[in-house]
Amino acid sequence: MRAVLFRLAGAIPTLCGVVLVTFLLTRVLPGDTATYFAGPTASAESIAQIKASLGLDLPLPVQFWRYIVALGHGDLGMSLTTGQPVRTEIVNRLPASAELTLCALILAIGIAVPLGVLAAVRQGSIVDHICRVVATAGVSLPVFFTGLLLVYVFYFLLGWMPAPLGRLDAFATPPPGKTGFFLIDTLLAGDTETFRAALSQIVLPACTLALFALAPIARITRASMLAVLGSEFVRTARASGLSGPTVVLTYALRNALLPVVTVLGMVFSFLLGANVLVEKVFAWPGIGSYAVEALIASDYAPVQGFVLTMAILYVLLNLGIDLLNRAIDPRARRSA
Amino acid sequence: MMLASHAVPAATPAPVLRVENLSVAFHTRGGLVRALDRVGFSVGAGQTMALVGESGSGKSVTAYAIMGLLEAAGRITGGRALLGDTDLVATPPKELARIRGRRVAMIFQNPRAALNPIRTVGKQIADVLLRHGGATRANAWDRAIEALRNVGIPDPARRAKAYPFELSGGMCQRVMIAIAVAARPELLIADEPTTGLDVTTQAVVMDLIQQMAAETGMATILITHDLALAAERAGRIAVMHAGHMVEDADTASLLSRPSHPYTARLIAATPTAAGSLDSLSSVPGGLPDLRRADIPHCRYAARCERRTDACDQIVEMRAHTPGHGVACWNPLTPMGQPAEGAPA
User: What pTM was estimated for this model as a whole?
Assistant: First the structure.
């Protein structure tokens, strides 16, 4: 427990840096908020008026101080495009992104880890070649391309999947929110019909993201399994006549998972980035598409809020990975 | 005459393991490596036999071939390894897995690396007991603690919950021995079991192995490059060189009257308590390249100072005196000279 608090405290400087850098970056980026919102016909006075009302005419340090004070109160500012507080928007949209990312990650792990294990155990077999093809395809196909391809094939050509229009079609009512995860909320409410609708909507974007995440997980699983299978303690397990499944699963796989877990953390953060594009393709109402729209409109507050949210997610994610590593590896528990 | 010519001397028990003409080759990028060539020996119940030779002589490959643990590039190209009536070479992998650990077990050098780093030692012993020792899920843990006590680990109930990195090298080797003897095997192969341990721990570990062997009548193959250790612990020594067995005799006979030039060189290269360091000499030359298609029949010939024209012919292991075999055309002691009092 103390180690957890220690880790969290260690993340504070990082978060401070993120706050400062995003503030500066949004200010130096080309594009002027006041001009954008005043519209193309606005006079110089009305632009200046808007600037004054937004506090954009103040010196940068003063603007930064105001931002920090507001942040201290948990206020991320207002979005100028939507007129909503940024915090409300992010809280409402985060579950959509999280649900999509987690589904993709679970799907990717479920396919990539067994694939990597089989490829290592049967080196040079068909499974090994499949693993190599999947890994190459996964890294070389950009997500917006696979996304569009899947939509084209499964919605347009085959008609197996619904239109890529968000989490639920327009006529369905979202389930009463507890977790904000539609798949979980519908099940909690016992609403199997909406569950099926939400599931059919998430399949394609989740597959798109999963394809992207498959490659690194499968590759590291295979490499790590090969290293462990050649290790001395696996030789001992074989020399002791332990059965094949015991050797591969209990002895080799658990040890091989250590680097896989570390890579999972990286993959998860890649996914959060890839989300931005996938959410655009599938009209997914997550925080990625929100941030992109805000960035195009030079709407500072949502961009800053988005980056800060991501930074906090990364910190929590790394903490989670650390804890997972400790759970698997007794040496990590002892040394920390 | 008391002894009829066909009588088997009563002192020789039926061998636990009899290896005949065992040959192993490795497929590598550089070509086929003939790592073992027609190796043969046998070891009886309760006996300790040492396989001695320098690095790369094929000692460990012999052990792995017997265990069926050769890496994927290695193939047994001929011969038999009879454990009782079972030919281990001809046994399918799944059946072999049931024999390993139950009838024949193995311990390794660097015991800490040879144990699963993220599983408690108690669980690792319990795994073997569950597989071979007839233990149930209910009593496996208690029996694992018992096994730790048998190998002399103090406070076994607490140590069973320890991970290998929390134990000393000597402790880890005791755990390895506990794993190996858990199912009371007929044969234990100890591959450099004391390498990397400090001298006092070495003696303790060897004592423990021999005590276990004495209690259960287990045969032991001790693989070592240390002729002094072999001389101290083994009743019989087989000397290997470049994948060939060159000499095989009881310890006293081999040390006092080495027949193969390589054995004599090995003895001269072994430090003793009495001799000074100056009296040590190294074995000249190196091992031949085993990838060559035209490896000489005697793989020691290129290093040998007693080489003659006869050495180009195929050399077989021949009984020099009863129980003392040597594979050499020009041995240090004349061939066929009977030991005193032995029937010709």
Answer: 0.81
